[in-house]
Specification:
Blueprint lengths: L1 H17 L1 E11 L13 E6 L5 E6 L7 H6 L16 E7 L3 E9 L8 E9 L5 E10 L2 E7 L5 E3 L8 E9 L16 E9 L2 E7 L1 E4 L2 E6 L5 E11 L5 E11 L1
Parallel strand pairs: 1-7, 9-16
Antiparallel strand pairs: 1-4, 2-3, 2-5, 5-6, 8-10, 10-14, 11-12, 11-15, 13-14, 15-16
Length: 254
């Protein structure tokens, strides 16, 4: 028994001796925007051995969203590096003793469940052959849409609703948290933002939401009767194909 344990220990030691530390930089980048980093809570990264499903490395991207002028305003030639040492990423460090085929999965942004996107790819890791710089960059399409008014499951007295109507308000940002505003880098004038309203399960109204301030989209819904209401706010960018949705239910009572 002792000889068996000793042999196993020696085998494990030998495996560790031959294993080579290998680094893989993983980044999540919002479509038509910047990198997903600490300002929005990061993207969650999982690196797995595709052969057996073993998790080899796991963690969140941290750091800044990157250089706006370089990423969004400059022409990019081949081999142009878009990141620097402060740009958000997750450095996976694995020990491998032979070429290993891995899957890289990203959940982003990790703290925004209604907007979270799963993106993945696969590649070979070669012992000692680091993949750094921009590394593996996974694109995250969409917008983060959060309805602020009315609140989820809010009970609203009909008599309390202004004659002008019920305010609808949503906060919308890029998937990296980058700001949206009129004539900004991410121009709200190029987006369509509307609220689709149902009452008691039936179509009731549609309301266009305007952008009076950075990230803020507002509209007014005329309501004259009580009932169970549902508001779905969507954002759509025709040029990029980015989309985002949030939904709330509320009650208008006597």
């Amino acid at each position: 028994m002792r000889k068996h344990i000793l042999s196993l220990s020696l085998l494990l030691i030998c495996m560790n001796v031959f294993a080579t530390e290998t680094k893989l930089m993983v980044r999540a980048k919002a479509k038509d925007a910047k990198f997903v980093g600490s300002s929005i809570g990061g993207a969650h990264v999982i690196v797995r051995n595709t052969l057996n499903g073993q998790i080899m490395a796991e963690g969140n991207t941290t750091g800044s969203t990157g250089n706006t002028d370089l990423i969004m305003k400059s022409a990019h030639e081949r081999y142009t590096q878009l990141s620097d040492n402060s740009t958000a990423g997750f450095l996976a460090v694995v020990d491998i003793d032979e070429p290993t085929f891995v899957s890289v999965e990203v959940l982003s942004p990790i703290n925004k469940k209604n907007a979270r996107v799963q993106a993945s790819t696969q590649l070979w890791l070669i012992p000692g052959k680091d993949i750094l710089g921009d590394g593996v960059v996974l694109e995250i399409p969409g917008y983060v849409v959060e309805i602020l008014k009315p609140n989820t499951h809010q009970y609203i007295a009909l008599e309390s609703i202004p004659k002008s109507g019920l305010p609808i308000e949503a906060n919308i940002v890029m998937m990296c948290g980058c700001p949206i505003e009129k004539e900004g880098v991410w121009d709200s004038g190029l987006m369509e933002v509307r609220a689709i309203v149902k009452k008691d399960g039936e179509p009731y109204a549609e309301v266009q939401l305007d952008n009076p301030a950075q990230n803020t989209f507002q509209g007014i819904l005329g309501i004259t009767t009580t009932g169970y209401y549902q508001i779905t706010v969507y954002a759509y960018g025709a040029q990029t194909g980015n989309t985002g949705v949030d939904m709330v239910n509320y009650v208008v009572r006597d």
